[in-house]
Amino acid sequence: MEQYVIKGNRPLVGEVDIAGAKNAALAIIAAAVMADETVTVDNLPDVRDVNVLLNAIKEAGAIVDRVDRHTVRINGSTLNDLVVDNEYIKKIRASYYLVGALLGKYKNVEVSLPGGCNIGSRPVDQHLKGFRALGAVAEIAHGRICARADRLTASHIYMDVVTVGATINVMMAASMAEGKTIIENAAKEPHVVDVANFLNSMGANIKGAGTDVIRIKGVERFHKTEYSVIPDQIEAGTFMMAAAVTKGDITINNVIPKHLESISAKLIEIGCKVVEGDDSLRVVATDRLRNTNIKTLPYPGFPTDMQPQMGVTLALADGTSVITESIFENRFRYVDELIKMGATIKVEGSVAIIDGVRSLSGAEICAPDLRAGAALVLAALSADGYSTVDDIVYIQRGYEDFHLKLRKLGGQIDIVSSDAEIQKFKLKTG
Ligand code: EPZ
């Protein structure tokens, strides 16, 4: 089993280029099959979840032509299997986007219930609510989400909770329903806007994405398009925190600074310097960080996907900090691993109380899920001594060339799969 081996306590300094947004790319790949012409998507991140979904739509009969690691041409006209339950589809959460896409296009679809990180219960009731409002019979049966309709007709849909997945999924189905659909209490994340822009580039008629009211006038068919995915807000935020925890100086290129405002604000609050460029951010952290409090919220609030990385940063800050995780019920799984490294954190329900320590010490730790895993790599890069991180496949789901980008910044990190390789790394870096 591959592991990261890391020698910490070295400031990360230099420049890093951010890849395309995983959570936009996944929805866009699903939406691409709604056209019967060739759709070219570039700036895709070369990460496991994207490659799994591309395999899933290929297995279902779509033409998938990988131009290069970041560009793909997709033609959904040959898609011939409306029961999508191949081995790939159960591995990722975003597989459920094929329900909205294929219900919109074919009015009939069955997709295996999604997999994804174990950060909470991950219900799909709001997805089903939206599909039913559009006139579909939508239910869970035989471990699949099943949806079919004679015709989809517009509706006025109120989301009971702010949900990225259901907002995107219902928006996709509604984009080919008859009439004008309104989605209220919609998610406003940058990737929701990116998916709406992508659908519009194929001929959809969607207005208001990025606000909490999205208006969709259904169309009959989509045409070809060429589209570039936005930069990944969470990958960028993760490297911003890497500067903070290693007292480094990192310039993060190919970002949209507006998408990172809540993260920049918090880093400034705890004592970092953040310099904004047109499409870059520079984060400098030298002195001891100060404590603060965080509550995760839907965009534009502090993102839940940045909560573990902030938890590691505050574990090294001076004073007591409180993190409230308001989106998912199981998103503190990194805390036990961090405690092995000397952190002082107490979790009570959805709240973590963190008493900052001056430094962490290297240890043998495990990645519990995607973002917690990335956060623990940051902890190891700041810690005194050596660490190994197990289950890095979680991290590779959402970060392209993570260890290579960290190494380019001066991080001492390698991928190993044996004790002998760990020893070799220790000799090389000792
Ligand atoms: C997306 O998950 C992202 N995943 C997650 O990122 C991200 O954490 C999350 O949005 C919130 O931003 C992808 O885009 C593939 P939600 P999603 O529906 O769509 C509740 C990562 O690290 N809810 O916005 O599953 C749900 O329980 C991943 O990249 C319902 O109650 O999240 C949660 O409390 C992890 N009913 C809240 O809404 C529903 O039908 C937000 O979930 C759907 C959701």
What's the structural blueprint in terms of helices and strands?
Blueprint (H helix, E strand, L loop, with lengths): L2 E5 L5 E5 L4 H11 L5 E5 L5 H12 L3 E6 L2 E5 L7 E2 L12 H10 L1 E5 L12 H9 L3 E5 L2 E5 L7 E3 L5 H11 L5 E5 L5 H12 L4 E2 L5 E5 L7 E4 L4 H13 L3 E5 L7 H9 L3 E4 L3 E5 L8 E3 L11 H9 L4 E5 L10 H6 L3 E5 L2 E5 L8 E3 L3 H13 L3 E5 L2 H4 L5 H7 L3 E5 L2 H11 L1
Parallel strand pairs: 2-15, 3-14, 6-7, 10-11, 18-19, 22-23
Antiparallel strand pairs: 1-23, 1-24, 3-5, 4-5, 7-9, 8-9, 11-13, 12-13, 15-17, 16-17, 19-21, 20-21
Helix pairs in contact: 1-2, 1-3, 1-6, 3-5, 4-5, 5-6, 7-9, 7-11, 9-11
The chain binds ligand EPZ.
Ligand EPZ binds next to helix 1, helix 4, helix 5 and helix 11.
Can you put this structure into words, describing what you see?
With 430 residues, this protein is of the alpha/beta class. It folds into 2 domains: 3-19 and 231-429, Alpha-beta prism (UDP-n-acetylglucosamine1-carboxyvinyl-transferase, Chain); 22-228, UDP-n-acetylglucosamine1-carboxyvinyl-transferase, Chain (Alpha-beta prism), CATH 3.65.10. The protein contains 14 helices and 24 strands. The strands form 6 sheets. It has a 4-stranded mixed sheet with strand order 22-23-1-24, sandwiched between helices. A 4-stranded mixed sheet has the order 2-15-17-16. A hairpin with a 2-residue loop joins strand 20 (344-348) and strand 21. The longest helix is centred in the middle third of the chain and has 13 residues, at 233-245. The model has no long low-confidence stretch (mean pLDDT 96). It binds ligand EPZ. Residues 22-23, 26, 93-94, 117, 119-127, 161, 163-166, 187, 189, 304-305, 327-328, 370-371, 398 line the site of ligand EPZ.
